[in-house]
Amino acid sequence: MTADAPAVAVGAAAVLGTLVGQALGAGNGFASVAIAVVAACGAWLLLRSGRGVAAIVLVIAASGALGAATMQRALDGMARGEARVLVDAREAVTVSGTLADDPKPSRFDTEALVRVATVDEGPRRGVRAFGRVVLVHATASDGIRLAQLEAGDRVELAGDLAPLSRHEAWLRWRHAVGALRRTELRGWSQPRGPLVILADALRDRVLDGLRVLAPRDRALLAGFLLGDTRQIDDATRADFDASGLSHLLAVSGANVAFALAVVAPLRRRLRTSARIALGLAVVVVFATMTRFEPSVLRASAMAAIVMAGSAFGRPVRVLRALAYAVLLLVLVDPFLVHSFGFWLSVGATAGIAVLARPVAARLPGPRAITDVAGVSIAAQVGVLPVLLLGGASVPWVAPAANVLAVPVAEPISVLALPAAFAVGVTRGPWAIALSCSAVLLAWVRGVAHTAHTAPVVVLLAAVALGAGAYAARRAVASH
Q1: Nearest Cα to 462, choosing from 410, 396, 414?
Q2: Which of 219, 318, 443, 456 is most buried as measured by Cβ atoms within 10 A of its Cβ?
Q3: Nearest-CA neighbor of 342 among 286, 397, 302?
């Protein structure tokens, strides 16, 4: 931890800097950039003169100033310009743009974030550039058709452009500057970018392969593998939330490692540069497939940093890679500091990096059990501050439920991702592997349901599992 302290301080300074920038408000950020440049130059001079500690202090200051500058400029882009004028005008318009995420259908309408390229205000005013994200509401047949589309699809929509309502205001942290209401879907087409086309093709093959499973298993595996939770029923969501297993429903950062594991046999046969290039390509494509979920962004950035360190013969420790990833992502998109999912992922990773081994070493029982329990407890401790600050709570049964479910859930992702893709392409014997995944999934679902309805049973089962494994190990050791 001591060796990683400077990196952690630099990453934390960037986060705090963005909050300072938010307090300062929208602006060009020139003053903050100037402070960052002066601090960086001073750090370089101090480092050359051998004054490392003072140099680190100035690097921390430069990081904070850059964080403030990026937030000020991001807020300025949201508050000014052509887009803001058009939103405040509250006029009926026709917009052309690209879906920024998968549409989310509900009981009454379908919502989606659209990155609008142009706005047509009619014959009198013509077409104007927009270049910002808006929240789209579509109902009736337009909502049904919109729900069938995917992120990256190009759309043409007509509706009333207006500011975000009070309960939609949080979407400004997802770069939304306004909303399009009473929306009519006039046309759509497939994405044009090669990256999106490739990612959507792979995603569609995985989802198509999952169709051989029962609806509930298909919905859960779509969440496990790709973060697509739209088809998960309310009862299942309640079970996973109450048991502390909700992190399994959304694609986690560990899935990036699983995606890299799929191509590991090929990567091992390549030279260093080609191996890193393939790894980065897999990370980028998988992040696109999962719609750039915050947890995947964090894991993707960490994977890229670790691979870059390996290329230069400088292995990067987990906590340091996490700090650099936070620094990089916050400077690229300062609005991530308001992403609950991002901070849950960061907290869990930090908790595991710092506490997993010490906690596991102090738990009685066989290593196979204590390692899993140590990771679960460390992750829960890591996310606890985030949950408390966000007004959420931690179910007391969560550690026991995670001990019983996580060791089974991890092989599901490793097994099901390539199997679903193979079934989606060939319809061959890989369906057997998916059936095995469904058996494992039934266990995880059963743990979640039992932890929700009879949490004491799950707690006793976890204790019995640990005690039984420990007794078996002692018996084998005695012989």
Answers
A1: 396
A2: 219
A3: 302
112, 104 Cβ separation under 8 angstroms: yes
Nearest to 66 by CA among 104, 106, 36, 97: 36
CA–CA separation, 235 and 237 (whole Å): 5
Half-sphere exposure of 199 (CA within 13 A, CB side): 24
Is the CA virtual torsion 299, 303, 305, 306 positive or negative?
Answer: positive
Fold of 82-191: OB fold (Dihydrolipoamide Acetyltransferase, E2P) (2.40.50)
Question: Which of 412, 195, 410 is CA-nearest to residue 282?
Answer: 195
User: What proportion of the chain, given as a percentage, has pLDDT over 90?
Assistant: 29
CB 136 within 8 A of CB 183: yes
DSSP-assigned letter for residue 173: G
* Other C-beta atoms lying within 10 Å of the C-beta of residue 460: 12
Which H or E run includes 110?
strand 110-120
pLDDT digits (tens, 9 = 90+) for 115-154: 999 888 876 666 777 889 999 999 889 999 999 898 889 9
d(CA 258, CA 186): 40
3 state SS of 390: coil
* Amino acid 418: pLDDT: 82
- The pTM assigned to this predicted structure is 0.86
Helical pair 5-24 and 318-332, crossing angle rounded to 10 deg: 20
pLDDT above 70 coverage of the chain, percent:
93
Contact residues for 26 (Cβ-Cβ < 8 A; gap 6+): 72, 75, 76, 78, 79, 80
Assess contact for 376 and 360: CB atoms under 8 A: no
For 210-237, the DSSP string reads GGGS-HHHHHHHHHHHH---TT--HHHH
Burial of residue 343, with CB atoms counted within 10 A of its CB: 0-12 exposed, 13-18 middle, 19 or more buried: buried
State CA 267 to chain mean position distance. 25
Residue ranges of domains in the chain = 5-74, 82-191, 197-478
Cα–Cα nearest to 433, from 221, 286, 216, 236: 221
| Residue 97 main-chain phi, psi, to 5 deg | -170, -160
